[in-house]
Amino acid sequence: MWNSMGQDGRLAGPKSVWEIPVDSYMLGNVTICFPGAEWAILCDGKEHLHVLYTPSRAAGEPWLCYHSLNLGKNNSCYILHAIHRSMPGSQQIDCIVSSVEDKSCLPEDVTFSQKSTFIAVLEWISLRCAQNIQVWTKKRTRKLASPSFPEYAAIDSVGDAICVISQGHFVMFYDSNGLSKAQKVEEQDPKPPLYTYIQTPEDITVYFRLPQHIKKTDIQIKFLPLHIEVSLQGKCVLSGQLGNYIDTGKSTWIMDGEKLEVILSKSETGLMWQELVKGNIQGEELMDPALINEIHSRLAHLTSETEAAPSDKVPFNLAQLEECDLSNEPLTFQRIDGNQHCETHRVHMGGHQWLFSQQICPESLPAVCLRHDVDGILWQ
């Protein structure tokens, strides 16, 4: 039904823009989502998913059904989120349909630690059509499962991924294009840094490990006011712009067995560099023990060796808490890649109480509102 409000503030009266088929209307709770300015996705609650063209919603023009997809669900299902994408020569609508299914629908290799007969299933359906030919077809279907129903599920159009907030972890167990076989990456020992360095307010000492049987004549080091180049046996191992200016006349290097020490004298004494060579991440800074002791001594007046005695006072009155103030929901945010079928991000919500989610604009993911103390903070 469509309705409008006149200038006098009164409703003009409802008008039908599209009628749900009677046979499907009686099946379940109807959910609708508006992925774009001219498109709507409607689920009748069990069997059918309808793609509706909704031109001039403000004028109340009739809606047109361009495609109906049979979901074949035995249980109630709902639309959680939908997006519309325009691509060269075509357009696509992605939607998430949620339902509760028997655990027997899962493959044998997908198991959950929770002993439950039923699971939550998210069906990620992709529909596509040509720009000028409004014939929609189902392009792809992906399914995810979890032992708990999600508080939030949305499609990230930027990276073709799905974002979920739930008490349980979701796993993608089906893709009509085929599941990718995850390659096991063998754990390797971390690679040692190419160099290490220690800085003081006056200079920086850089340490390199030297190969065996190297001679002093095999080492070439070029000092410039804002640049350094280190070569070993004709191979350049470090070259780039320094973090700040050095005094080339006072900078030098020493060969000590299988170790090379390069001493850079700072032009500006007392300035601590943020990095040795800009953009180079092959080295590691080591803290100077003397500098650490100096920092500790400067902060000594802010610390105490006497442990504070615990207080018997309660910071707030427990009787003032209501049932809604207590949250034991261990919620977790997941981002699952739709092509690699693996989890790319996982964030624990830190025990903050879930309040609601809100779609602020169709182009962005729905915002999430979490409780922080007595406030609700909106995250996006």
UniProtKB/TrEMBL annotation:
Pfam families (UniProt xref) = CS
Highest taxon above the source species: Eukaryota
Q: Where in the cell is it found?
A: Cytoplasm; Nucleus
Sorted keywords for this record are:
Cytoplasm, Nucleus
Instruction: Return the GO cellular component terms, semicolon-separated.
Output: cytoplasm; nucleus
Metal-binding found in the keyword field: no
CS domain span: 190-277
* Main subcellular location of this protein, as a coarse class: cytoplasm
- Name of the featured protein: NudC domain-containing protein 1
Q: Which organism is it from?
A: Stegodyphus mimosarum (African social velvet spider)
